[in-house]
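User: Predict structure, ligand flavin-adenine dinucleotide.
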Amino acid sequence: MPVHFPLKLVGSRMLAPSVRHLEFTRDDGQPLDFIPGQFIQVHFAAPDGQPARRSYSLATMHDHALGPGEAVEIAVSYVPGGAATNLFTALDQGQQIEASGPYGRFCLSPKDENRRYLLIGTGTGVTPYRAMLPQIAQLLRERDLEVVLLFGARTGDELIYGDDFADFAAANPRFRFMPCFSRELPVTSGPDARRGYVQDALADLAPDPERDIAYLCGNPNMVDTNFELLKAAGLPIPHIRREKYVSNK
Ligand SMILES: Cc1cc2nc3c(=O)[nH]c(=O)nc-3n(C[C@H](O)[C@H](O)[C@H](O)COP(=O)(O)OP(=O)(O)OC[C@H]3O[C@@H](n4cnc5c(N)ncnc54)[C@H](O)[C@@H]3O)c2cc1C
Ligand SMILES: NC(=O)c1ccc[n+]([C@@H]2O[C@H](COP(=O)([O-])OP(=O)(O)OC[C@H]3O[C@@H](n4cnc5c(N)ncnc54)[C@H](OP(=O)(O)O)[C@@H]3O)[C@@H](O)[C@H]2O)c1
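Assistant: Predicted complex:
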């Protein structure tokens, strides 16, 4: 049975019209160490009184151990009528929730020797990539590597953490940020922005089994479509790493 711990809300802001960024501290004084790409689970009572849990990727830009008192950050996309959505919508500063973790293997591997990472995400599915930024900066310093982030959002105001990724790309020339807008291309979008789904931009990047390892995170249909395209391009299955955002029931 995994250890459960209390998280206290210490700050929040809206990242998009229906996405809330929440910052917590562990309220038991213990550190939460995690590997970027991992997630926590939140435990609560559903409206029918039954125990429920939902998973959330850690968004904290993180290098190593989180000391006690350091923020545990997540981004929650509101699903109309959703049980956890109702919990997070009503959560006020200073209130506690119950959590466990960290969990998961959707992480960069120190054994990888590829020359390019294709990081692909939709909606809050880019959260793990934000957590990975310090680790990516380190890898870019250490070895001959390119990183491309394909981020699918409907419109400019749903491009969560867009400034973090754009700033990182400006500071790291071998990191390319390609936002893909499914409904409307913002007027001020840069040369790497695209109109369409993330998979529509994939051909431009010419996925190459000799060079690439891909990560796919977020909308389950997006993950399946891109998995098939990358497999058809010759990438071996262990080089196509996936995290589907579905509810635990
Ligand atoms: C490993 C992992 C990591 C995750 N990380 C995040 C994260 O960082 N941020 C985040 O916002 N979510 C994340 N999720 C999804 C999250 O756990 C919940 O599924 C989501 O918040 C909806 O929960 P809910 O209780 O509000 O809705 P529910 O009560 O579970 O669902 C209500 C209704 O909406 C439908 N529904 C649920 N989710 C979606 C969706 N995304 N799109 C369309 N319909 C949906 C359900 O089928 C149901 O009919 C992650 C899931 C996994 C498995
Ligand atoms: N404006 C809205 O409708 C809106 C806004 C926020 C959240 N929500 C709701 O909140 C929940 C989660 O939303 P979210 O924004 O986090 O994630 P999401 O619904 O997965 O959408 C994120 C992005 O992925 C795109 N997408 C959808 N299907 C795809 C596929 N098969 N392949 C590639 N890209 C695909 C979406 O485009 P398209 O949507 O254009 O197809 C959008 O640009 C959903 O229930 C959603 O309906 C709705």
